[in-house]
Amino acid sequence: MELSEHIKTANVEDVTLRRPFHPALRGTLCVTSHHLLFSDGKDEASWQLLILLKNIDAIEKSVEILFGYPRAVGSSGTITIKCKDLLVLQLEIPGMEECLNIASSIEALSSLESVTEMYPFFYRPSHLTLSGPWGLSSMEQYYKQTERLWDRWRISTVNSDYSVCLSYPSAVIVPREVDDDMLIRSARFRQGGRFPVLSYCHHRNGMVIMRSSQPLTGANKKSCKEDELLLRAVIDGSKLGYIIDLRSAQQAQQARMTGGGFESKSCYSDWKRFHRHHERGKVVQESLIKLVEACSDPSHSVDRWLSKLENSKWLSHVHSALCTAGLVVECVERDGHSVLVHGSEGTDNTLLVSSLAQLILDPASRTVTGFLCLLEREWIQAGHPFQQRCAHSAYSHARLKQECPSFLLLLDCVWQVWRQFPLALEFSEALLLRLAQEVYASNYGTFLCNSEQERCAAGVKENTHCLFQSLLRPDIEEQYLNPLYEPTDLVIWPSVHPQSLQLWTGLFLRWTEYAQNMEEAREEVWSIVKEHREQAGPDRTNNMLSTHCDTLTPFENLMDELTIL
Amino acid sequence: MEHIRTPKVENVHMIDRLTPRKSTVGTLYLSSTHTIFVENSEARKETWVLHSLVYNVERLPTNPSGSPLLIRCKNFHVYRLLIPQEKDCLDVLASLTRLSRPECYGELFCFSFNPNLDKELREKAWGFIDLKAEFSRMGIPSNLWHVTAANHEYRLCETYPSELFVPKSAFPAVIVGSAKFRSRGRLPVLSYFHRDTSASICRSSQPLSGFSARSTDDEQMLHAIMKSNPVSELMYVVDTRPKLNAMANRATGKGYENEDHYTNIKLQFVGIENIHVMRSSQQKLVDVGELPAPSMSDFLWGLENSGWLKHIKAVLDAGVFIAKAVAEDGVSVLVHCSDGWDRTAQACSLASVLLDPYYRTIKGLMVLIEKDWVSFGHKFSHRYAHLDGDPKEVSPVMDQFLECVWQLMQQFPCAFEFNERFLIQLHTHIYSCQYGNFIGNCQKERRDLRLQERTHSLWPHLWENRAEYTNPLYRTDHSQTQGVLKPLTTAYCFKFWKGMYGHADKSVASHQSPADCLNAVREESQQLEEELIAHQERLAQLKEKKTSGGRKKTNKLSERVRRPIPIESKLSSPLDYFTATRSEKHSPSFTLPLELAAPPKNGDPDDLSTCSDFESGVADLSSHSSSAGDDTKDPDSDEAVKSNT
What we know:
The structure holds 2 protein chains of 2 kinds.
Chain A: E1 11-18, E2 25-31, E3 35-39, E4 49-52, E5 56-65, E6 75-83, E7 88-94, H1 96-110, H2 139-145, E8 153-156, E9 172-175, H3 180-188, E10 197-201, E11 208-211, H4 225-235, E12 241-245, H5 249-255, E13 271-275, H6 282-295, H7 302-312, H8 314-334, E14 338-342, H9 349-361, H10 368-381, H11 386-389, H12 406-420, H13 429-438, H14 452-458, H15 460-463, H16 467-471, H17 474-477, H18 505-508, H19 513-536, H20 549-564
Helix pairs in contact in A: 3-4, 6-7, 8-9, 8-12, 9-10, 9-12, 12-13
Chain B: E1 8-15, E2 24-30, E3 34-39, E4 46-50, E5 54-59, E6 67-73, E7 78-83, H1 86-99, H2 119-126, H3 131-137, E8 145-148, E9 164-167, H4 172-180, E10 189-193, E11 200-204, H5 216-227, E12 235-239, H6 243-250, E13 265-269, H7 275-290, H8 296-306, H9 308-329, E14 332-336, H10 343-355, H11 362-375, H12 380-383, H13 397-411, H14 420-432, H15 443-448, H16 451-454, H17 458-464, H18 498-501, H19 514-546, H20 555-558, H21 574-584, H22 607-610, H23 638-644
Parallel strand pairs in B: 11-14, 12-13, 12-14
Antiparallel strand pairs in B: 1-2, 1-7, 2-3, 3-4, 5-6, 6-7, 8-9, 10-11
Helix pairs in contact in B: 4-5, 7-8, 9-10, 9-13, 10-11, 10-13, 13-14
């Protein structure tokens, strides 16, 4: 079925559009294969509204018969469109039939599941070419750039045809002394074949963060010699490593009944295991739904609001993620031992914790490029199933399948760190907001599919543009810079006391007046900093407390000129 | 001095609750005014705690390592000490308990505090805030309002200032009659005049109306107030109490205005709870902050259960209602509660902050507090327990006002000239009794205590240090700065004030501060500017030497318009800016050793790693709150398997 066949009515005139911050507009509504367009006809060249149909999470229609309405049919309908970026807008459409047609077209087109029919495969802006590099860095490049890995670690291409682990990238970093056969055996012992691989090597002491899925010990307490050897090779003679299991001890026990399990003390004698309970899947998705629901009703009393905020548990998830990331950092940085992180599948909370720990530990991941590379390595290449997790957002009434806002949770945690260390990250809240939007609906192919293997099969790299590449173009990147950035090599320990964590108003109250005043404040910060930079000369951007010699150079030149006179 | 049982205790541990690793050992000294802890470390860091700031002292059960002592301060700082000998601990406890509860005004710190100012300067300092000038700044038209001498020598109302603004059309007999019909003689008088609409905010106490009483004088007084706004035929009476409370008061011969007796008034209740409800609400809030290892749910539940933010919203709602009536409807408002010195002060001053950009400046907020709170007889000494007295009189009325201003600052980051630090400093000094401004309960009492001769004024001290209290985002020509503020009062706009209540432990230092950073940027910009000018001058001189008709190339550079920066804050370099404020810390007689008064810390890179809640040391790896219990069970053992399946 062609996409266009879903469109029952392509154009409707005399539609009224209502949305936050804007007066109601009257104009023409238009549905195309991938977009919903609205124009008031005054300015032919520009659309007043252009939203990706993929961005539409839920659509509600109410049809009412109006007496004395000028149209012959004497009826009209209102469609409420709720987007995945939390924007809500209303369209008043004259004519009941048109209204229903528009609604059903949107419903059909916004829930397409075939990857190659999605907009990134059709997005062809004139300033981008498909021949450019896709992605920022491959695992091989990462290895080449990270000299501290060369001694004890190697790149393995055992998964080059994705046969060992369907969700892993084709190349992974593993201990040098472990050969590919051992990896294959270890993979058989881990859920989904996700054997332990290197996620991060700490620049200060060479300790590493590994990640994997749960071992398949099962009820019979199976063990796997190769998996044990692999982990022994990770700590390389040091007598201690930490396993952070992202489930409670009881859950880990129960997992054995379904074939999963945990690393037992008898088999992994050098490893000490901690259990940290993290909610996953549906529970987290429901938290998001409850939170957004609470935020969208401004009539709540303070008590009711706080009770709803508490009840959503969203901040509790943020809290646990930061706590566990902090624990990992403490193991690596303060205690000086390597860590293995895993939950059950190793594709959600595992990635959340390992990437947060890196942000806290590693100054390199706090720049714009570094952060995007981190996301690429730890989320996209590492096989977070974006397509399944982000199929629906907070408004959808569809029955939940595999949805879970793990990535949104990561962005929220990063925002909490950014708020506590406003000077330590090179990027600003705007980048996090942009990513929160792109992950659900995008012109770019970056967040398509569930793994490298699927992306390969669908030809994503050949046929779509890369979001990260485009974010790093100098003119674009500027929008996402933190004006107050001052690089620091230190570990930025976030406070995880509940009173230090806040609701991410920039995201959850994005479409309220509250966010508008904040925007003004941000502009003011920029203008102060820009003025300062102008004053201080173009070369000195961030280093505020340094000497003023650069500023003085122009004067020395002037002096020279004068002496020539 | 006779209350000090032991002046010095050695080997005392100062315990850091969140990060026990960072606890320090030192010597504890008790002076007549301060508790001083000096670290044994090389830095010999000193911590000074003013006795009058101590809220209570609690001794916990003695354990093998010593006797723990908890000092809780009125600014919500908590100090945990571990004293080796139980006897010493008991002595310190007894001494501090007595010292922190002065029995008469003469014992207060402000009477012994001497910052080495000569007499003349001190007198000048007391004149820093001039309320007469403030009323003339408001632009009150003299044909409609005037100062009445009715309260000369506090004859009419003991708790009002001696000079009162009343409608010119109100005859002396009406004024006296109205005062007689109002609780404690607190008659309706002008608090704020809004030039743009000619509407005014007046304040009073509740009328003595009971179930049926009326006073034609009071009715005429209100009519006169309404008439003083020539364009309006209506007036609001805002009773800031919940309606039920107001009705209950009628049984005791008080109550509220009967709309049938007064011409064209509209009565509105806004429902701010009484001081007792607020006191217990704040206590619950503070308890939330002291929870040992709260989960997110514990915290949010505690926050909800305290009801604190609900009360903050009620106070702000009252201010918003009044400001809207005055600015948008152009209608004058009379505000009262029971006595007209707590909720009335909150509502009037908040409305003024919303209405008039002047009150959002550093000087303006000082003026506002002096006017609506100090002069109109807010009972500072009772509410903030300056003396050992009736605990039922104590209530965080001013805390709530300051917090409402803070909540507004969160919504309008560019609208206020001052920063959070300023509000917290004000809060501390309202309790500290270091300066004479907030001693006593009304103007008459302060006059009788001869405070101006015997104590110092806080305002000039804050003004001198205003560079530290300036919000870098404030600009007089910014859209948020101008006109009337229209805040949202949706529930989600109200946040927990971490800077105020998050200080249960002294170590929870602020993380990186963007404001400090921006201030530093501005300081440096200004300093570069100065250098620029200096160089230009030098260039000009050189040019003159070389040729008389040299090119005027440099002028272009000086034409760059600079944003005004307080002139007094001329600092030689940003680094000096830090050291300058830091050195002040070493003269504790002048500034309280407060964490928040501490200088910006971004010059010191180590600070980053010192502010973690995580720093519980490796030994504590298992103690993180999320699921601490799980670690002790090792699911490997077969027993565990059995018990769990």
